[in-house]
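Incident review: delayed structure delivery

Summary: a single-chain prediction request sat in the queue longer than the usual turnaround. Root cause was a stuck worker, restarted by the on-call engineer. No data loss occurred. The affected request and its eventual output are reproduced below so the record is complete for anyone auditing the incident later.

Affected input:
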Amino acid sequence: MKVVGVIPARYASTRFEGKVLAPIAGKPMIEHVWERASRSQLLDELIVACDDIRVYDVVKAFGAQTTMTPPELASGSDRIAHVIANIDADIVVNIQGDEPLIHPSLIDDLANALLQDKKCSMATVIKRIERLEDVNNPNIVKVVINSQHYALYFSRSPIPFNRDNKSFEEMKYYKHLGIYAYTKDFLLDFKAWPNSLLENSEQLEQLRVLEEGYQIKTVITAVDTVGVDTKEDLAVVEKILKRK
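Output delivered after worker restart:
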């Protein structure tokens, strides 16, 4: 089966315009993402999906495979669906363009989840929350799972609700890391569905999948990432890279 990774690289980010080109330790952020994703053992092809010629030119300059997508596409998964619609692929991995510390093992774990379970159409990565303050942070998406590690629900609110005031350790809160794998056919079907009620309420498009009655397999990892949403996040990532 052919596994294709796609990195949506959007220039017009609302909170931090042009962040994918922001320099980190001497390289644009998107180059860090591409370099790390390139170390995956299971990707047969890796494509950067650009919505702006400035990003396209930079990506071409450091030697990555890239393609332009219409700027009006609303989300990263819309851009990925546009890219893979006419290429040969069985499994597609959505690699966020603002995750310069992405570990290649996360990509392989996700691809493996679909390769090993033919009933599985979509998978994502979750991690145990280690700080209590993160549970109440709406920018950190929480997830609850069943005994087979399929997602029951995603929310910006603290879930599950701690009615009996159990200890933080007993509760086992998990956060969602925004990297996905899908079968190509499932992704194209998913993007054709209308936005759902819960999706619009939480602003989490994976809830559309659950509302349609499909399952999302979760892969629990010990590897953390640091997404870049602000210039302050950029400074944190640069400090980590320089330390390494």
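Verification: The longest helix spans residues 104-116.
Action items: add queue-age alerting; document worker restart procedure.
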